[in-house]
Design goal:
Layout: E1 4-6, E2 13-15, E3 22-24, H1 33-39, H2 55-75, H3 77-92, E4 98-107, E5 112-123, E6 130-157, E7 161-164, H4 171-179, E8 184-187, E9 191-205, E10 216-229, E11 234-237, H5 243-250, E12 277-279, E13 284-292, E14 295-296, E15 300-304
Parallel strand pairs: 3-6
Antiparallel strand pairs: 1-2, 4-6, 5-6, 7-11, 7-12, 8-11, 8-13, 9-10, 13-14, 13-15
Length: 305
Amino acid sequence: MDNFEIQRSGTAAQPSTTETKVWRTFDHRPRFGTNYGGLRNRLTILSEAYSYLDFKGRIAVTEAFVEEILNYSAAHAADISALIRRVDTDAARGKLAQAGVEFELQAAAKPVNILVGAVEKKRNPRNNKDMTAMVESVVTPTPMLEYGTFAAQRSAAVPRAYVFKNEEGLQTVLAKLRAHGLTVETLTADQTIEVESFTITQVNQAARRFQGHAETKLKGTTKTESISFPAGSLLVRTAQPLAPLVFYLLDPESDDGLVNWNFLDAYLEKGKVFPIYKLMTEVKATVGQLFHKNRTASTAQNRYV
């Protein structure tokens, strides 16, 4: 609970425009493990114990919390399984038409009661400085807005597939796709395909490095054009269960994809065309499966993308 907007890409906490206490979740980006699970169509729950409890206390409350989650999951197992199957099936059928590239926290429709503990000043035994500690015996249900949902401020179209040439500079991209277990296919013959290209108009890199990376954001313009792709070029369909992850990794405007983490820096320059193209319409392509869930295959077939 706070009166601050926490910017996870930096170090500053910026005061919000309201003095009303609110409950906020943390950053939406999939670099955080619980969010990444969501991109794979799975449910995840973050467990964190109160940091000023002693070790024994943290173990006890964590055990109780996890046990409650397991009890709830067992009681609702059929509903949870049905939800996951439905989302996987919808993604595999290509039902994801739009996906967010910029997000904002959104409040629930009505205030909820948050259990707020009383606090007192204590001496921190680790550094001998004053700290604010919770009084465990005094807890007050306090109604407030709960910001626990992320809504897309701006979205981009999800293509039928992403296609790019199998060249040396993109081998790290290919390796990442494989590491994430995505299905990737190859064109088995030269082919000219109508695609949507992205011409870069602005490259913004963070001045301060984060975990050794200069986080990168792109702005650009799109147009439809015909591009010749040689045999061996790579095609990644979005009609697969991990469609949200495909989009997040490969889209040029994704806020936490391969662009952001510097895998494509050699291609990022104002005026250049982004090397990964969007295939927006159905075309016939002769493809062979390069890998699927980390298993190789080589059967070629004519398929409509």
